[in-house]
Amino acid sequence: MNDFIPFVVGPLAALAVYIYLMKNNKLSRLKKSSLLIFLIAFIITEAGRSFYRPYIYSNNLNDYFLADTIGNSFGTVTAIFFILTVVGKGRTKDILIIILVITGLLLYESINIFLNSSIDTRDIISTIIFGIISILIYKALLIREEKNIEV
Questions:
Q1: Which of 4, 28, 35, 73, by CA, is between 20 and 30 Å from 43?
Q2: Prediction pTM value
Q3: Closest by alpha carbon to 101, among 66, 76, 132?
Q4: What percentage of the chain carries pLDDT values higher than 70?
């Protein structure tokens, strides 16, 4: 039952943000796209953690560390696009927000040094890669938004 809780909480959070933005007249096409990307990345992350990872581990399959890094990869996209949906202004300066989120996630991962645990370099690499992918996606959304305004 606990495996299904995120699949209720995530969409409810997205719905709450959607209603909030709509009531405050801040629901642009860019915000809708960011919210949708958040929701898709969230569902992929939670499905990976709840079902895919246990299946891979229990069957001792080699998936080239996808199961191990799914939380950091799609979780990075989830965090970035949720924050952009809530506080993003739809400008190129929002890239700074993305960089701050990536930095925060990397610092969180690096805390393991102080907890007498090892740092998972694959998680750090996946955070960086998917952070860069998020920047590229957001830039593409900004370009689409600018072209839409001009037309």
A1: 28
A2: 0.91
A3: 76
A4: 96
